[in-house]
Amino acid sequence: MSIALISAADSNIGKVRSSNQDSGYAGYRMFFVADGMGGHAGGDIASAITAQRMAQMDAEYATADDAGASVLARILETNQLLTETVANHEYLSGMGTTFSGVVFVEDKAVLAHIGDSRIYLCRDGETKQVTTDHTFVQRLVEMGRITEDEALVHPRRNVLLRVIGDSNEPPQLDFNVLVTKPGDRWMMCSDGLNGYVSDAIIHMNLSSEQTPEEVVDVLIGEALEAGAPDNVTVVVVDTVPAELSSVIERTAKFVGSAVNDVVVNDVKAKSKTKDSQDRQFISESGEDFNRIINETERSVQFRKLRQIALILSITGLVVVAAWFGYSYTQTKFYVAESGGQVSIYKGIREELLGFKFSQVYKTTDLSLMSLPAYQQQLVAKTIYATDIADAYRIIDRLKASVPVE
Q1: Strand order in the sheet with 333-338
Q2: Helix (H, G, I), strand (E, B) or coil at 384
Q3: Burial of residue 315 (number of CB atoms within 10 Å: 0-12, 13-18, 19+)
Q4: Alpha carbon distance 95, 80 (integer Å)
Q5: What 3-state class would DSSP assign to 187?
Q6: Measuring CA to CA, which residue among 185, 242, 243 is closest to residue 3?
Q7: Residues pairing with 345 in the sheet
Q8: What is the pLDDT of residues 311-363, one digit of tens each?
């Protein structure tokens, strides 16, 4: 089944960064985002080179396999180009980029993904992420070392395990082919969106009746409202019945760094600005990965031990406080009724969660019914004593109030 495509794309530098290292593309059959890394000097170059070269593959393909093979071949060529660029310009060392894109072939969507940018699909009112983040923390989640909530605040959350760029290993992309249909809405975004805008807000907008352009504008606005500490790039594609293709204005559009010509200065040395949120790349098969895994294990174990120690300390304080509190109650006495007899109680009359803080200390031979009505009411309501001697004096006074027959 043939489909037509309506798309929109935009990119924003955000409120903190001094340059936009994101690139995006909304074309005829191909759509993608590329989020550069490598500091101020290299991130924008890496994403722009990748975007401009990948956009050349925006074409009609006979099959999904053909599209996937062409995309992979161009990714490998681009990776080689980035590696050579770094070799010739040392100040670009460490530069790389993510890539998350879709090529539409008839009713097939060919997904190519590497890094931590994302692809979402909204269908029949349900939105789901259809890519997996290639990050250190996501790997820890998959290994059961940390929870998804812990991943959000983990100190290594900016470490990537797969990128295109300055690496000793060829890029390992995830490829997937999904069937698409009219009414589907696809979104590609850099982590400047999903890192600061909740899944609920993303779903609310993707499932709305807004146009792709409106959705892009609103979501970038949400990222800016959240502080936008990172660049944010969003590409939205709606699939519609093929018969609408004649009324759809189709133009290809670059956004972000890819809008500009790529210029690599011939500089022998250049300082690289380091930002606390700049991402790093480590190979999953390298020594650094195992070292960080071990560091994380020790950190998790230490945190658990610290939590256990804290719980034990708090529990100990609660037990000590409870013991002192209970001991204090056992210095108190009062007079009340027990089994129809006037009795002396040790403790206080209050209860907590069904636990009583008093017990009968002595049951006297004085019957409650033998007392005058007023004294019966006093005993029924409880007569508090200052100590045990005072409790016995209260008993003596009650006995003295019994009428003589």
Answers
A1: 355-367, 341-352, 333-338, 383-385
A2: strand
A3: exposed
A4: 13
A5: strand
A6: 242
A7: 334, 360
A8: 888 888 888 877 787 788 888 999 999 999 999 999 888 888 778 888 999 99
β partners of residue 282: none
% of residues, the chain, pLDDT over 70 = 90
Region for residue 38 given its phi and psi (left: phi exceeds 0; alpha: psi -120 to 50; beta: otherwise): left
Phi, psi of 342 (to 5 degrees): -75, 125
Residue 320: count of CB within 10 angstroms of its CB:
10
Give the Cα separation of 159 and 109 in Å (integer): 29
- What does the pLDDT look like over 29-58, one tens digit per residue? 999 999 999 765 689 999 999 999 999 999
pLDDT in tens, 130-188: 999 999 888 888 888 888 888 888 877 888 999 999 777 789 999 999 999 999 999 99
Query: Is 0.70 surpassed by the pTM of this model?
Result: yes
Which position has the token pair 């037990």? 319
Using CA atoms, how far residue 86 sits from 44, 90, 167, 370, in Å, is: 14, 6, 10, 104
What's the CA angle centered on 304, arms 302 and 305, to 5 degrees? 65
Cα–Cα dist 158/292, whole Å: 13
Calpha distance 244→352 (Å, rounded): 72
H-helix segments, 89-179: 136-142, 148-152
**Sheet strand arrangement including 3-12:** 3-12, 232-241, 185-189, 118-123, 126-129
| Best CA proximity match to 378, nearest among 344, 333, 335, 328 | 335
Biggest distance spanned by C-alpha atoms of the chain: 121
Class assignment of domain 3-261+279-285?
A: alpha beta
Ranges of each domain in the chain? 3-261+279-285, 333-400
